[in-house]
Amino acid sequence: MTNMYEVRAGIALLTLDNPPVNALSHALRRSLAERLARCLADPSVRGIMLLGTGGRAFSAGADISEFDSPASQADPSLSSLIQRIKNSSLPVLAAIDGHALGGGLELALGCHWRVASGKSRLGLPEIHLGLIPGAGGTQRLPRLIGVKPAYEMMLSGRPVDAERALALGLVDGVLEGDFREQAIHWFLALLDSGRGVRPSREQPVAEDALPPLSDRTSTHAAQALRRCVEASIHQPFDVALQLERETFATLEQSAQSAALRHGFFAERRASHLLGLEAGTRPLPLRQIAVVGAGTMGSGIAMCFANAGFAVSLLDVNPDSLARGLSTIRQTYEDQVRKGRLSVEAAEGRVRQIEPHSGFEAIADADLVIEAVFEELAVKQTVFETLDRVMKPSALLASNTSTLDIDSIAGFTQRPGQVLGLHFFSPAPVMRLLEIVRGRATRDDVLVTVLDLAKTLGKVGVVARSGDGFIGNRMWHQYLRQASLLVEEGASPMQVDRALQDWGFAMGPLRVADLAGLDVGYSIRQRQYRDYPHQRWSGWLDRISEAGRLGLKGGQGIYAYPEGSRQPAEDPVIQALIDEFRREHGVVARSFSDEEIVSRCLDALSVEGIRLLEEGIAQRGSDVDAVFLNGYGFPRAQGGPLFQADQAGLPALISRLKLRAAESEVPFWTPPRLLCNLAQRGDSLSAYEGEGR
Length: 692
Ligand code: 3H9
Fold this sequence. Notes:
With about 700 residues, the protein is α/β, with parallel strands linked by helices. The chain folds into three domains: about 1-255, 2-enoyl-CoA Hydratase, Chain A, domain 1; about 285-465, Rossmann fold, CATH 3.40.50; about 470-615 and about 620-680, Orthogonal Bundle (N-(1-d-carboxylethyl)-l-norvaline Dehydrogenase, domain 2). The protein is built from 27 helices and 18 strands. The chain has an eight-stranded mixed β-sheet, sandwiched between helices. Helix 4 crosses helix 5, helix 4 (about 135-145) crosses helix 8 and helix 23 crosses helix 25 (about 640-645). The two termini are about 30 Å apart. Bound molecules: (S)-3-Hydroxyhexanoyl-CoA (3H9). The site of (S)-3-Hydroxyhexanoyl-CoA has 26 residues, from strand 6, helix 3 and helix 10.
């Protein structure tokens, strides 16, 4: 950080210089306070302008990594820095070029004037971290833009663009061209017109009724936010500000906020490859091709079109290609109908997807993603063809969810450029992208696709090749426990409800129905061969063998009366389960919801730890990022390994030993890595492997 201080035509430029996003760390706050004091003592200064460096961000807010540490409160706190700005005898302008978020926007709200460049985004997203704005935002924003819009902006956490900010009165001007020069110009004109210091707290708050919180939005943080905004109407400014400060401090200590902050950093950490050689640069990706126009291939093509790429969609079968294109068109039309996309944007996206039926047409693509039938022999034909046809520098990716990437790489003469890109269904919606690294995959290739994941708005997580990679391997253990719990006495509905009440988007047995029982059945038949020591409960297989396919067939573990997507308990299935228990001499017992949740979570943790031991996952937080973004794990619980840390590793070890004594050795045997970490007092979610 440089201590930049520059005076231009009587305007002191105080630069927020803490790359990459100018988080308001203690060092930056102190440096700003020192420079502010210097300005106020400098007779040549008429006005003070705060601006960010680099054009990426004014500031992304408080330094989240400082939370829970003394640095977050160290003098000057953000609130006291804002107070000094407010009390400044010289007018202060916030010149926003890029993101002004959280404490970054609160800092700007504390300035007397605000201007923004056209590309700026302004918001108070603290709610996504289980927090409320804690440096005056809940009081100053309602005063500036009105109670209702301010409340809605803070409750949704969604930033607004510069144009909207101007319409709301959040900024005083939107400037184009050379932003810094324009901002100086704007400020000088303001000062020359005789205007200057303008405290927002003196403006009254208009009374406005707040809309009620729905079940979905009613979190601790949302309730706290509502109380603070109500205080902005009914309480004096200082009293309400004190309430905000105390509420923020309580929320900062909450388990929910700790979990959400863990999720935030887990997703970002995942984008860094461990053991990377310095100077490794991403390769240019301009032209993209997708092979296979089925559900996955079409969905992947849409991901690229949505992110502004032109993409070739290839299918050698003209009927499949036509079907794929028709699905794509239909999906965009649905989005237009729901008001999510304009007609022009939808048409533009369809045009960005260019259909082809011959490989030669895609030979110049920089990256090709294969999404054909999940069988090694079929992949072999495609990869041999791609290797022959594609330009030598092209990267070849497979969307396989089960097959060995090294075998696929072996079909080519360029194994360093072969990798897995495992999109989840529906591809345009699901945020997770598992990036599967073969033994030979080059680091620059991985860095390239990690960057690509960000461009596509996905969370990319690197996994080594291995059965089920990270996510599906853990998922199968989780589903296996769900099936065993039913065998032992719980009902499918109880298992699903217990996990849903705990926060999962959907219970595992409902997901099995949604994914198709035939899919799970065929995976299990292979797993019985590959892992003979592992016991699944056979009732699930019997349902498939009875011809029930799950949701798509209208009946599976549940019944779906008259095409409904809502599962209903089916007496036929209860009878099938009872029969299965009788045959196997199982006396059904009752389970508490806590027992169900604890056992399913332990299964996820133990398998996640094994993935770390085997080096398939790079770090503990990657495992959490996978489950948060691909499997409906509740964000407010932070991820399976974060949960294990919260409950304490010694407690987990004791539970696993009990489970092993009661039933399955070696599945429940505590992994060595877990014992070592527990002994050292280290945590699972902060564990990092060795990289390469
Ligand atoms: C707050 O302000 C509380 C106050 O109300 C009260 C205080 C008293 N802190 O996302 P990216 C890092 S709460 C620390 O990949 P992008 C991030 O980890 C805060 N670090 O870039 C990453 O590190 P690395 C309210 C932060 O361009 C790097 O910056 N603010 C912070 O895709 C690049 O980030 C928010 O919730 C931070 N605040 O997106 C905003 N922000 O390079 C949180 C980022 O090591 N931030 N980093 O992986 C964001 O939403 C996005 O980062 C942003 C840029 C949109 C700004």
